[in-house]
Amino acid sequence: MGLLKHSGFWKPRVLTCSALHNQSIDTVWETICEYRDAAIERGALESKRASQNLSWMRQLVNELLLRSLRTHPGVREALPAIEKRVQNAEVTPLAAALEVIERARS
């Protein structure tokens, strides 16, 4: 996820606070704002968002392709038998995957 990685523009600080005793909450908030300002100034937030968007798009493509395969009549009908052949080591996973793709194409 990369939450703890930084591009070198920020050195994380160790702060203590207590919401229960209302101690140093302002300091923590100021530090959060400083980080955000530094990240915006250096384009880190924009870069991170672009990277996240690309990752989300790829994940969605994978999910949509799988859904499309699973709902394809030819694949849906043949999939249990193909999976059984993989489990029984009668066919390699790659060969089975290629068979599923080929059924989806026809």
UniProtKB/TrEMBL annotation:
Which residue windows are coiled coil?
none
What organism is listed for this UniProt entry?
Luminiphilus syltensis NOR5-1B
Report TM segments.
none
Give the family from UniProt. Belongs to the SIMIBI class G3E GTPase family. ArgK/MeaB subfamily.
Matching Gene3D superfamilies, A to Z? Answer: 1.10.287.130
Which GO terms of the molecular function aspect are on file?
GTP binding; GTPase activity
Pfam families of this UniProt entry? Answer: MeaB
Q: Which PANTHER family match?
A: METHYLMALONIC ACIDURIA TYPE A PROTEIN, MITOCHONDRIAL, METHYLMALONYL-COA MUTASE
According to the entry, what is the taxonomic lineage of the organism? Bacteria, Pseudomonadati, Pseudomonadota, Gammaproteobacteria, Cellvibrionales
Q: What is the name attached to this protein's record? A: LAO/AO transport system ATPase
Give the UniProt entry's GO cellular component terms: cytoplasm
Q: Which domain of life is it from?
A: Bacteria
